[in-house]
Amino acid sequence: MTRYISFARPDGTPSFGRLDGETVHDLGRAGAPSWLKDALAGDLGALAAIGRYPRRAVRLLPVVPNPGKILCIGLNYATHVAETGREQKEHPAVFTRWADTLVADGEPLVRPPETTRFDYEGELAVVIGKGGRRIGRDQAMDHVAGYAVFQDGSVRDWQRHNIQFTPGKNFPATGGFGPALVTPDEVADLASQRVQTRLNGELVQDQPISDLIWDIPFLIAYCSTFTSLAPGDVIATGTPGGVGDKRTPPLYMKGGDRVDVSIGVIGTLTNPVIDEA
Predict the structure, then answer these.
(1) Is there a contact between 267 and 149 (Cβ–Cβ < 8 Å)?
(2) Which of 30, 26, 16, 19 lies closest to 48, judged by CA?
(3) β-strand partners of 236
(4) pTM of the full predicted structure?
(5) What's residue 88's pLDDT?
(6) Comparing C-alpha atoms, which of 200, 191, 170, 172 is closest to residue 271?
(7) CA-CA distance, 73 to 160, in Å (whole number)?
(8) CB of 176 within 8 A of CB of 104?
(9) Model confidence over 104-130: pLDDT tens digits?
């Protein structure tokens, strides 16, 4: 399976490339910073490698380290709607995250000292490859560059200071995005892939993507109506039921924990949890 990653070269320069087992094929520009989002509108498979590194010699970055937009969809599984006690609405809830809130696969999520209610949310991320405005449902999948795994880590008390979600979703390094971009042709049956979250090895979320209330074509059409989508933009499609905040007793992340989000052939995003010093 072809996987594309963003990474820092051994000298610290950001680049992107193709991951082949334990070998990273550098697809960026020699001696200069390079970004995956700038290549998504073209043919990634046609890019020639400028060099190769052992996987252990580079540091992973979030799949798209510098997206122009990260649009997150709330309440997009009926199980999650039910556990929150909310009514299903006619339109999806949409909120935003910022790029500096996300870390790569293997990097720690950081629980801020302002909360004891640090929650997990495993999700499928859709990465836009072809930009556009007012994209029709029937054309929406032509705009998808690929898929990755997303951890929409949530500081629940700050999320609920008022009716908006933004503060609780934007503490630095509270979310994860990785490990790699998988192109649509590599996922034969996306609907059957299951979003599975494990906290310290315990399965806490498990639901197929087919259970999305608003599917990917709808989300692309809806979001591109109110904003232009560009290559590298990310749509996080929502989390299934089973979040820690709605369990009895509640189950929150803390320093020393490990959280894994797996989505079938798309991969597994693994992050330890640390408390902010």
Answers:
(1) yes
(2) 26
(3) 72, 125
(4) 0.96
(5) 82
(6) 200
(7) 16
(8) yes
(9) 999 999 999 999 999 999 999 999 999
Q: Could you give the CA distance from residue 65 to residue 232 in angstroms, rounded to a whole number?
A: 9
Evaluate the CA torsion angle 8, 12, 15, 19 in order and state its sign: negative
| Entry field: residues in the chain | 277
- In which residue ranges of the chain is pLDDT below 50? none
What is the distance between the alpha carbons of residues 239 and 93, in angstroms, rounded to a whole number? 12
Structure confidence at residue 91 (pLDDT): 93
Residue 32's Cβ-count burial label (10 Å; 0-12, 13-18, 19+) is exposed
CA 70 to CA 95: how far, in whole Å?
Answer: 9
Picking from 37, 145, 59, the residue whose alpha carbon sits closest to that of residue 105 is 59
Per-residue model confidence (pLDDT) at position 163: 82
Residues 6+ apart with CB under 8 A from 162: none
> What DSSP string runs through the chain?
--EEEEEE-TTS-EEEEEEETTEEEE-S-TTS---GGGTTTS-GGGPPPSEEEEGGGSEE--SSSS-S-EEEEES-BHHHHHHHTPPPPSS-EEEE--GGGEE-TTSPEEE-TT-S-EE--EEEEEEESS-BSS--GGGGGGGEEEEEEEE--EEHHHHTSSS--GGGG-STT-EEEEEEEE-GGG-TTGGG-EEEEEETTEEEEEEEGGGBSS-HHHHHHHHHHHS-B-TT-EEE----S--GGGSSS---B-TT-EEEEEEGGGEEEEEEEEE--
Which pLDDT belongs to residue 61? Answer: 98
Which amino acid makes up residue 275? D
First to last CA, the chain: 39
Question: Which among 25, 223, 196, 75 has a CA at the least distance from the CA of 140?
Answer: 223
Q: Is the distance from CB of 69 to CB of 229 less than 8 angstroms?
A: yes
Alpha-carbon gap, residue 48 to 45, rounded angstroms: 8
Three-state secondary structure readout of 202-216:
EEEEEEEHHHECCCH
